[in-house]
Amino acid sequence: MPDATPHDVVHHDATTPVVKHVSDGRLKLAAVIAIGVAAVVVVGGLVSRVSADQGQKAWTSQQAIPTINLAKIDGGGQRQLDLPGDIQAFSTAPIHARVSGYLKRWYVDIGTPVKAGQVLADIDTPDLDQQVLQARADLATAQANQSLAATTAKRWQGLVAADAVSKQEAEEKTGDLAAKSALVNSSKANLNRLLALEGFKKITAPFAGVVTTRSTDIGALISATGGPTDPALFTVADQRKLRVYVRVPQNYSALVHTGMTADLMVPEYAGQTFKATVANNAQAVGAQSGTELIELALDNADGRIKSGDYATVSFKLTSPITTTRIPVTAIQYRHAGPVVAVVGPDNHVKIRPVVISRDLGSSVEIGSGLSAADKVVDNPPESLVDGDLVRVSGASAQGSNPKAGA
Fold it and tell me: Biggest alpha carbon distance in the chain?
């Protein structure tokens, strides 16, 4: 037993420090690993946050760049100008009564084709008939007095030759004959005037055409005072040819000339066009409207188009090749006048002043300040200024052609 005790003590003392050393090493290694993992996590978090901040800033910067569309630019050449037109018959005649009376009968109604000289109506004129009878009687009296004066004058001339009467008395008889002859002529003129009025008892058409209005009926009292306010009994219009009146703005008046053709459209024939030819122009610009009156001639032998129609007249105008045309939405009006925003090769904007030569309604022609190769911003925002960076939309970038319309 005494030998076993020292041996056991020595064995115990030898193993105890080894176990303690191994435990301490493992703890240190775990601590180092934990610190490394923590450092990696912290560094990764910081890097991720910095990357997210940079991405956010880049996205914000990209969103701040406005996306724009490019306007379509065309060069000079042919342009279409649509204007309202007023269609009138080549000849229109409101027919008034020249004699007073009562309408005896009428023979034509609205829409009736008539020939030149055709009777439209008869007027009963009892007062005029009596005036004609009186004029005939007055003429007969004047002729009788003239005959008596002629006989007397001839007789007195014979007495003067025989010195039976004085020369003065013979000249008085000759003068009386001249007065009586003048009365005969006056009576004849009065009778002829009344007979001419009798001819107006029949209302006739002045030319071939169509009756467009009838404003009287049988038994209606007709008063012919000869004033402009007298109502027209009938209206006859010659619609085989038509006149089309268009007011052309001053800017385009130099491009419209006699002999050029235009397309005419009326609502009742949708989709159909009729050819009209410029016949005359007023050679003057209206002070109030700023337009020049243009007259076009239109052949209407088939009678399809009616007098008084509203029409749209389209002119094909040739503009100088040096001009360019852009949509009106690309124009901005600032304190210095009209401007456009042009996109440069580096996608930076240049605000450029332009001169508008013609306003075509939905588009404008630019006389100077722009070329067909420029990239013009359509509907530019008011906040757009010189040097701003813009992004051209994909559709505009693909559809833009610097040579379009050149």
Answer: 227
Phi, psi (rounded to 5 degrees) for 163: 55, 30
The answer to whether 250 and 114 are in contact (CB under 8 A) is no
Report how far apart the first and last C-alpha atoms of the chain are (Å, whole number).
Answer: 122
DSSP lists the bridge partners of residue 210 as: 113, 237
Does 22 score more than 60 pLDDT?
no
Specify the higher pLDDT residue, 299 or 395.
299
Rounded Cα–Cα distance for residues 290 and 221 (Å): 46
Among 299, 238, 235, 234, which Cα is nearest to 90's? 238
Confidence of residue 356 (pLDDT cuts 50, 70, 90): confident
- Element spanning 292, H or E: strand 291-299
Q: Is the pTM of this model over 0.70?
A: no
Indicate if the pLDDT at residue 188 is higher than 80. Answer: yes
Report the alpha-carbon distance of residue 207 to residue 395 in Å, rounded. 63
Where on the phi/psi map is residue 273: left (φ > 0), alpha (ψ -120 to 50), or beta? beta
